[in-house]
Amino acid sequence: MTSMMNRRRFIQGAAAAGMTLAAPLGLAARAGGQAAARDALAPQGVWPGGVEKPLMPYTPAIKAAGWLFIAGQLASDFETGVAPQARGSGTLAGQLTLQSRFVMSNVARTVAAAGLDLGRDTVRLWQWLTSPHPTMDAFAQGNNWPRISTQAHFAERDAFLAAPGPAATAMGVKALMVKDTLLEIDLLCVDDGGRNIGFGQPAPPPGQAGAVRRGDWIFLSSEPWQRAPAGAGTQQQTDQVLRHLARLAEGAGSSLRRAVKAEVYIGHPSEYAAMEAAWKRWFPDNPPARVVMPYMGLTGGQGRRVEIALTLLAEDSGKTIETVHTSKAPKPFSHEPQAVKAGNLLFFSQQMPADAGGALAEGMARHPNFPYYGLPARKQMAYMLKNVAAICEAAGTTLENVVRRVCFHDRGENFAEAMDEWAAHFPGLKPVSTTLVLGGPLVVPGAHTLLDITAYVP
Fold first, then answer.
1. The model's pTM
2. Does the keyword Hydrolase apply (predicted)?
3. Contact partners, residue 360, CB within 8 Å, separation at least 6
């Protein structure tokens, strides 16, 4: 200890005298190597050639922590609407074929611009398809089937993917940000020079895996590939799905206790409580970060009430899982932490303009006697980002290191106002973004926006 103090005093004295000290060669090389490793993990934007530039302020793709995050891709030229080469006057299936081909081609170019291969390196795929079904009345009755025929899209998609394929989700939503677009696709790739290992029986459709392992990480598809029991309610189906996912996780070398992030897809917000009751039994302690998305058209078939996708660490991974909490942001109103840190990634639970009791936070709505005053969607976004920044700080990172967001709006009219506020908080590298319109009120009455966020931790 004395020698270390003497060395520190000597260095300080030398600096005061204007002297330059050379570090030992091994120490300098080691420090340089560590800096290079940090730089390789830090967020880097990817702007592919030959792909239409986004109309809104977000980055098409970001590399961070050995992952590649791809923003939602639409069949648009961002000038006229649907791109001319993606337009069709035939059947809906024919139009979906053209749009899927356009989107998957752009996705492949974006992944290639990052030095990766779409077929080999994609581990997680999200597919959002528009449909006028279910109606709000149908959702309220527990009928969550969107009546979407996915075969046309899957046929185009699978031409770009390789076995065993990524873990995947396909959901019906009310609207996308460009008129007449039928689908939006965002995805996640891993940049480790490795390959996907697929698990899961019964086998999912071609081009898709029930479970994928890539290095330390395991990704489980949202589709349980089992018919929902006749008359089964949301709580019973949640039990069934988690039982199935537990088996998949075990077969892939993990377990539900190693889950770091959960995406839960339900129909009407009133189904939240039944899902939550089952969730607490499966995750009594240290639950994963969780985002619950209502008004999802569940494409797996009629009778479905809930689907769940999980991201986990393998049992033999050396990475640790840390629950993140700060008193500077509201405590979650349901059974999830504020965020979970695993390796160099921070997975947030759902962000809404809510207080700890699940009500709309104070000041987030227009005064009833002044119905035309204020910008509530903007104010709500600012409130959520204040909380996100506090959680980032508690996890050892900053708001500027957010790399991905998926944004769900109750109504499309709230998009521009909220996006303008969002972009103002990211003067440098702007996170990849996917924006969807749900068409109905969120779980928190009066909330206009639900955010799903991932950040990089140095």
1. 0.91
2. no
3. 353, 354, 444, 445, 446, 447
